Description:
By secondary structure, this protein is an alpha/beta fold. The chain folds into two domains: 4-83, 2-Layer Sandwich (Alpha-Beta Plaits); 89-239, Rossmann fold. It is 30% helix and 31% strand. It contains seven helices and eleven strands. It has helices spanning 17-27, 61-75, 99-109, 128-133, 148-161, 178-183, 204-211; strands at 4-12, 31-40, 45-53, 78-83, 89-94, 116-122, 138-140, 166-169, 188-192, 215-222, 232-239. The strands form two sheets. It has a seven-stranded mixed beta sheet with strand order 7-6-5-8-9-10-11. The longest helix is centred in the first third of the chain and has 15 residues, at 61-75. The radius of gyration is 21 Å and the shape is globular. The relative contact order is 0.11.
Amino acid sequence: MKNTAILLIDCPDRKGLVASVAEFLYRHNANILHADQHQDNEQGLFLMRVEFGLEGLDLGIEEFRRQFGRIADQFRMRWRLELSTLRPKIAIYVSHYDHCIVDLLYRQQSGELACDIPLIISNHNTAQRIAEFYQIPFHLLPVTKDNKAEIEEQQLQLLRDHSIDLIVLARYMQILSPVFVDQYPQRIINVHHSFLPAFMGAKPYHRAYERGVKLIGATSHYVTSELDEGPIIEQDVMRV
């Protein structure tokens, strides 16, 4: 993997944004490898993603953050700097259906997903043999309406013990409580088996069939306290 950094920015749109970012990177000998930008005219919003090489950069990462912070303040930017060499630690949640977790584990093992998966959490034992095959610790924590709060506290302790950065719900058929979700804001991704916002909640395929739709799909989105209402990351469809 190349030793690169990714600068992510959003702020009110105005003149000079691209020039200021590019000039700062050039002045500190950063080689820009990839850059994307977008203006939302209705919202007056500017968004930018810049990936640059760290070889030759004349600033350490913390000093970069400190000095770039001056530009960020000037343009009222929300921003963050991520390093490609840092592998996030991901916990995967799963219930009965194993097709999502099988795909994720294969892609992680093949190197397509640059992350570490220290544990798998499930309320059923269906995926236990898959976890054993990939040599990932499997934690079976059955959930009932009477023990939900207790089980979620056990889960949170496991996540803290393993310093988890991101949670992926790979067909985990339980609704996480707002108390749980608040511990990981915009750090829980759900794989929902419908083309949101159509057919939220349970049994979306069944309701799509009953409705007679000609396209069905899947959605990955960030989890919020409102069921299936979080910001959408990616979607795809297929014909019935």
